[in-house]
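User: Here's a structure from my thesis project, written as structure tokens. My advisor, Dr. K., wants to see whether a designed sequence matches the one we expressed. Can you design one independently, without my sequence as a hint?
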């Protein structure tokens, strides 16, 4: 029987990883000592609104690129090809929408949490509903971000699963408690640099092993991995130009325009102009990180083009593919895999620190301050305690994730289901003066309900494999394939094992609505967004929203047609497009 060699991280690798953790802690300690005399909730949770746009931009980018993304993006390219690269175009559209529409409204209102806007625009019920959904979203995703990379590394390298979970969780809690948002932002800048170094090291070593990147590209072209121009308009296609750009635009708007974790960062800038610079600097960082991740996926395919470790049973989880390759290509370079380990956990630390500071902020400002008139120092101390509590809560959910099994994947999808409807809720308020609280809440409930319905339906009636278009991977069936092989591989991937003819798999009779269930998961956010807008506006008009429009505070509405792009429209027409809101009074 052929024995599989299990590679592990060396002492040098763990030393490199430990240095990253220590450096992150020291940054938090530095800001705790430097700012100890001017500590209040605005200084602690918004960095005193004094941050430069460049570290904020780094922080926004690296907190978006979680460890799940660092491990998962190369595998998506490995399985489906380079159409994933179009995400950066969707991200650009999202950054333009965020900076031109939402930043001016939120920043000029002097908000501390983005959900304050909803109470001013609608009522407290809408505000607390959105806050609760954000907290569920953040706790679900935060626990997964801690657990998923630790599980993937444990399955491939034997890295102690709970040692990794606890150590990263405690370090993150420690530097977030000490330094507040300022410490988190500067630590994110360090972690962004580590992530870049990790990707570059893999690309250089992979190119040396495979005869240069030009040869890697050629091998991927032969394996049908290089494709950028799939313009198929069928919404059931997993990856097309339209599904990726449209879906990613709405998904990223849900995260950048109206999510406290990201809004809290650009609100820490000194002005609206600098907040906009931070958002676009963040986009450049995302282009660089996603570009390197896609290139890493190309190297991953070229390295395993002759034998897929998943098909051969050498790797149990998809997210373990990249660590498995890293340990192979750097087996003669002790310490270098530690850079990769540090880059994975840089993504985790950034996302978790973002989550717990945002959760602390919304708890203080949305739940406590409206009801208690304590001193500012008391609220600051509570903020520190809440960061500690939420950090432990995320670690607890990481433990629960280990017991949920297949529900783990469902939780990741449900997180995506929430972002589109929440973006729709804010868009209804910011863009449409005649929207009222009844319509906004109705749209949100129906939008989330429809998204969940489609998601559950897709589990009962999975889309046919040809819509996913998972590309072939080959490997002779190995004696390493055992009955306890647990990776979740789609039917289409299994069919390509050993390059044989696909085996017909019987499927249940598909009702007409199954075509809706088969939509690409990239469209979930856009689907929920459209439902919220449609239902919200119709219900608002039915319940008297058009009569109430003149009572809306002009500061809460964005004058869309007054943007410089529409300056060619005569002023008398633009006034009519204000829908009765007296924006001239606001100008005075």
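Assistant: Designed independently from the structure alone:
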């Amino acid at each position: 029987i052929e024995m599989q060699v299990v590679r592990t991280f060396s002492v040098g690798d763990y030393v490199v990883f430990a240095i990253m953790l220590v450096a992150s802690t020291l940054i938090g300690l530095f800001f705790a000592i430097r700012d100890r005399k001017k500590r209040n909730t605005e200084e602690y949770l918004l960095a005193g609104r004094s941050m430069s746009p460049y570290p904020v931009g780094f922080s926004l980018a690296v907190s978006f690129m979680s460890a799940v993304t660092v491990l998962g993006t190369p595998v998506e390219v490995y399985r489906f090809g380079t159409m994933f690269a179009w995400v950066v175009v969707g991200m650009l559209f999202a950054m333009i929408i965020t900076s031109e529409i939402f930043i001016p409204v939120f920043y000029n209102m002097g908000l501390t949490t983005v959900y304050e806007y909803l109470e001013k625009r609608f009522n407290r019920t809408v505000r607390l509903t959105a806050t609760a959904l954000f907290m569920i979203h953040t706790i679900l995703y935060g626990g997964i971000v801690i657990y998923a990379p630790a599980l993937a590394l444990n399955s491939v390298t034997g890295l102690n699963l709970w040692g990794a979970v606890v150590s990263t969780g405690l370090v993150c809690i420690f530097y977030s408690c000490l330094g507040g948002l300022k410490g988190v932002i500067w630590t994110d800048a360090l972690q962004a640099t580590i992530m870049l170094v990790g990707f570059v090291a893999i690309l250089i070593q992979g190119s040396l092993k495979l005869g240069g990147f030009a040869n890697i590209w050629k091998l991927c072209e032969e394996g049908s991995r290089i494709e950028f121009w799939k313009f198929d308009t069928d919404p059931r296609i997993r990856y097309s130009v339209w599904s990726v750009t449209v879906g990613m635009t709405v998904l990223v708007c849900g995260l950048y325009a109206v999510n406290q974790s990201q809004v809290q960062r650009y609100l820490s800038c000194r002005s609206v102009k600098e907040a906009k610079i931070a958002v676009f600097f963040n986009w450049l960082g995302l282009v660089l990180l996603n570009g390197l991740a896609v290139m890493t996926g190309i190297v991953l395919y070229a390295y395993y083009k002759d034998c897929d470790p998943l098909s051969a049973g050498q790797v149990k989880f998809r997210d373990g593919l990249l660590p498995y390759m890293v340990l192979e290509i750097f087996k003669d370079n002790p310490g270098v895999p530690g850079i990769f380990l540090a880059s994975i956990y840089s993504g985790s630390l950034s996302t978790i620190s973002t989550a717990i500071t945002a959760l602390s902020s919304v708890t203080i400002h949305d739940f406590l301050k409206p009801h208690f008139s304590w001193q500012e120092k008391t609220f600051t101390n509570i903020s520190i305690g809440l960061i500690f509590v939420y950090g432990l809560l995320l670690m607890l959910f990481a433990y629960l994730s280990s017991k949920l099994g297949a529900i783990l994947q469902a939780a990741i999808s449900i997180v995506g289901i929430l972002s589109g409807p929440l973006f729709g809720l804010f868009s209804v308020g910011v863009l449409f003066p005649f929207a009222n609280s009844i319509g906004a809440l109705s749209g949100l409930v129906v939008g989330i309900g429809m998204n969940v319905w489609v998601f559950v339906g897709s589990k009962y009636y999975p889309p046919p494999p040809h819509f996913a278009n998972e590309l072939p991977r080959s490997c002779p069936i190995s004696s390493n394939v055992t009955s306890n092989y647990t990776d979740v591989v789609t039917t289409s991937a299994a069919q390509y094992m050993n390059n044989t003819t696909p085996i017909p798999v019987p499927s249940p009779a598909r009702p007409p609505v199954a075509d809706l269930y088969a939509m690409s998961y990239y469209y979930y956010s856009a689907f929920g967004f459209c439902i919220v807008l449609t239902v919200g506006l119709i219900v608002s008009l039915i319940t008297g929203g058009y009569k109430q429009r003149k009572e809306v505070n002009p500061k809460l509405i964005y004058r869309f047609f007054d943007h410089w792009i529409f300056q060619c429209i005569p002023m008398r027409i633009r006034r009519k497009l204000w829908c009765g809101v007296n924006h001239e009074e606001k100008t005075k």
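When you compare it with your expressed construct, this may help: The chain is about 70% helix and 0% strand.
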